[in-house]
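Protocol step 6 of 9: fold each sequence in the batch and record its structure tokens directly after the sequence line. For illustration, a two-sequence batch is reproduced in full.

Sequence one:
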Amino acid sequence: MTRPESAQVPRSERKPLYVKVVTQPALHGCWSVNISETGIGLIATPRRPSEGPHENEPVELSFSLPDTGAYVRVRGTVRWRHDTAGSAGTVAALGVSFGAFDAADGVKLARYLSTSHLQVVAAYASDDESRAVRQALDGVATPHFAVHAEDVHALLSRGDMAALLVCGQDEAQALALVESLGALRAEVDPTGAGPPSDLASRIVYCAPAAPERLVALFNSGRIYRALGAWPDPEDLRQAVLQAGREHGFRTEQWRMALELERNLLRERALAHAPVGGPGRTAEDVGFRSPAMQRVMEMVRLVAPHRVAVLLQGETGTGKEVLARILHRLSGRGDLPLVVQDCGALTETLLESELFGHVKGAFTGAVSDHPGLFVLANGGTIFLDEIENTTPNLQAKLLRVLETGDVRPVGGTQVRHVDVRVVAASNRDLGEEVRGGRFRADLFYRLNSFTIDIPPLRERPEDIPELARAFVEQFNRTLKRSATGVAPDADEVMHGYGWPGNVRELRNVVERAVLLSRPGEMLTRRLLPPALINSAVPRADPAGDGSLRARLHQVERELIREALERHGGVLRRAAVALGMDPVTLGRRARRHGLWNPE
């Protein structure tokens, strides 16, 4: 299995594709809706919600490329999945990113995407009309001619047809085909909310018909364009190109809408998700440090009020978790929480993402985009790493904060939104203002309520409770049965500096839970060597520098090392130390190094 070499063929954009896809794990009724060199969008009808791969899980795909005979096999990862229940059963939408292709299949796909033309069905065309269609579409589309309605449906079922030309001089026959496709569309998807796999809205009508009938068909969405019999070649060419682009735009918009809906549902679920055990949420972890208790008091105090909040703290201190708690306690918990990392995009893209844009505002703006402020209307928007924004964008953010008015890029219409803004910074914004790197007016607007989050090294009292909460969380998600954190591991955690803060602690616990055996406590043995080597041992609570205290510490270290060296097997450790196993067990229990259960 190899990746395709990007230099071998030109890179391509996402293209519509509607073909049967076989997956492993198996997913019933799986079809593609679009494809690029890096990923594919899928629609399926699983027999049960647990069927098939889910988010962040690996998947193997195999599918054919229309009109080429080429067959592609690729391994990938499910980046997102959204299941919708309806009267006809569950429909699952998935976004899969490609990983490794089988042999040269990656090159096949890249070449297909970069060289394939639009595929077009021409129905009922006479010999003269067929020649005219070929000449008009030469170099931009490949026409497939159908004489009977059954042939039309067979070609459409291939899934890669971008448009349908209805030709011929038989008005009744042509209109009957249009009506049958419209009825089929309503039968398959009465809501019109499904994937745009049908061609009813991409029909270019080139047959005779009364003007009022054509207007009715156009207004009802049954046809895309009416050119009349024997259209001008350039008009036909442009109509097909536009129909193909429309198909691509509608497919992509539908995919993005599904992904956005899934993301909003996920944000809402995460805002309510338990972080510790059942019924225990992030705010109930039980911070023991006075610093974090003060932080939580401030969060509860400001949450119900529509005040902009600025969260300041080092990377990994849990600013996004606090933003979710603020949102949940604000009374807006049932409305969207939208998260945007301001350091991940350029100024132009970030402005478009936040405020939206209108069609034609810039190259690539092929349709209107509402923007995250509009999508978060009534809810909360969390702007992470706000210190990375430019002065120009900061001025526009200030206007939204002060007036609630949002104007999309390239637009003239202003929309008023009601959005709670929570911003976060890894740096001291006051210092950024003094250094001329951040607008003072926006800072003072955000600074009305600032919450400084202390790093984990300054609040070691919180480490045990956080570690236990993460153990419970990863027991559920990783299907493990770790029974807690052993004293020797707890001592190492207390002695470590945690430069990555709570995020680093979370990753360390996740690794330890994954490595643990069934029912095992997380011991020092399961911690990363770099963490163990960097930890500074705590002073013994009973230690006063006396000989007794020092001997107690030495004995504890010798027993710990022996147990670790022999995999926690008490009898083997006792042999190595020249002790009776019962005596060693008693002393190990006294030191908190061994649990007989």
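Sequence two, same batch, same settings:
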Amino acid sequence: MKYLAAVAGVALLSACSPQQETHTETAVDAKISYPMTVRGNVTDEYFGTVVADPYRWLEDDRSAETEAWVTAQNAVTFEYLEQIPYRDKIKDRLAELWNYEKVGAPFKEGKYTYFYKNDGLQNQYVVYRTDEEGNTEVFLDPNTFSEDGTTSLATLSFSKDGSLAAYAISEGGSDWRKIIVIDVETKEQLEPTLVDVKFSGISWFGNEGFYYSSYDKPEGSELSAKTDQHKLYYHQLGTDQADDRVVFGGTDAEKHRYVGGQVTEDDRYLIISAAVSTSGNKLFIKDLTNPESELVTVLDHTDSDTYVLDNVGTKLYLVTDLNAPNKRVVTVDAANPQPENWEDFIAETQHVLNPSTGAGYIFAEYMVDAIAKVEQYNYDGERVREIELPGVGSVGGFSAKHEADVVYYTFTNYNTPGTIYAYEPDAGESTVYAESKAQFDSTAYESKQVFYTSKDGTKVPMIITYKKGMELDGTNPTILYGYGGFNISLTPSFSMTNAMWLELGGVYAVANLRGGGEYGKDWHNAGTQMQKQNVFDDFIAAAEYLIAENYTSSGKLAVRGGSNGGLLVGAVMTQRPDLMQVALPAVGVLDMLRYHTFTAGAGWAYDYGTAEDSKEMFEYLYGYSPVHNVESGVHYPATLITTGDHDDRVVPAHSFKFAAELQAKDAGANPQLIRIETNAGHGAGTPVSKTIEQYADIYGFTLWNMGIKELK
């Protein structure tokens, strides 16, 4: 039986290998007739420079004109995609690969052990629980929240004794949430739903109530109007939301764009973080054992990213990059928590630190060239051991409550599906808790880390994954992925969509660009504001490396990125349209002169700067803003822009304008299309069915425009 299964697997693998051949023109190759996009006469003036914004009207996501434009664009795009002969084959195979049971690590709350599980193709993960007798049942099934699976479970938080739970739902992918409070025994809702919650956790204080954050509902469209003053609220159970107390952020002096509150595990302190941008925060602490206690300032500036990792009594353990770009852990007494009183607990090293806690230990995870290394410490600051990991890759987890006996972690890399391990910290032993059931033969593929040289001489790491034995003859379909921003690190991780690309015979390369966090704050800052071009140069150099080393050629190269990575793709394809055959910007920040006027976009100014900051900053942004750098007469790569009509993080107007510019000005024969997912947002909570359809379209579009006309 095993032999038959192996043979079947080989047959399926070979069934989706690309084959290039000469062909006669088909309907899908015919010249596309794009919908007409009306050009308006709106202009803005920046420091004496007048900038036209002819598609400003597409920013109105509630207008009938924009709705009609979206419908017309989707009609053209899907007509094109539907004619790709192997699109359905890719979709069916991806669904087949995706259809296996996926289980998350267990966690204890009260007398139950909870875990997330997906049977295979369920649109959303289901929350199960097991009682002390070993009986397992469904606790929450988000697949029942809406008929089409587009309402997702965003947050789940339990009260101190585990008898109550509050969970947040997202509808249609929006960042606006609703919070529902239930009794865990009966699963019955206990009070009216809290509404209009955004960018928030749910942090319980005992069983009495919880802290959450939100903005006042904006005037105009809730999907695009600017949200600027975040507030921390306390909700007392049994009271109306209208009576919820503003804990922080309600005054002009406390006005910040992002405010969050977290209660320590022992219910002793409320920790408040306040920030005006996505980097840097102020920090405050309140003693919850004394209702009359004042809010104590830990940090009164935003020159660092600092948070409380844990506390033991009045002793605080803080993680900070203040005077430590790669981060360190410090301790301080809560009575005098200012920086002058900090003492190093885990000193800064040459590698970036991301610590976690559980079972009475601190786990110091380091990134060594984007690869994980974990060391275990006790609360006296003594290094216990380096934890032996299953291989070279990424880990997630190493987090549990103080009283836990075991902590769980997940290990993965680009060609290894995630496996959950149970780690006993006293013995220092790891055992497999849940092995991945993915039908993917990791041994058939390999990942290789290389270091290439960027334009200014900087060495940049990149991991390239492909089928073993692949010939480096410059003909391999390749996707180069990047992000390069917001201190976010791209560490090796497995995804079934990437596995599908590998099975198709593709190369998948991920470059760790400046702007990310792989080498700490200095690496991040090297890709921000007036140094943002470094990020684009790093990505261009990665593409040139792949071509020079014969992994691929310009005619077989696609570039892909989402959100800030969508900006990356937009900037690189307008600067070097000759470099790639296909461009795949997803939910991208593409209008760099106006990004900060939508929703919480002004919070990205640390990375980007804004067009109002100075003449120099305006000219810099104007010089690379993708929407403003599409030129007439240029042959652009085949482009499939993807976005969601409910994206209130990076509003779809960015993508709408970019598509309109490309369609109006491109001089070549390559398609310039936009795929607009309806009832979907920035990505989180997207139903599995929609994800499978989207990637079938992306891969079909990519391979077709690389000249691959049928799959073996």
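Proceed to step 7 once all outputs are recorded. Observation for sequence two: The CA atoms of residues 250 and 381 lie 39 Å apart.
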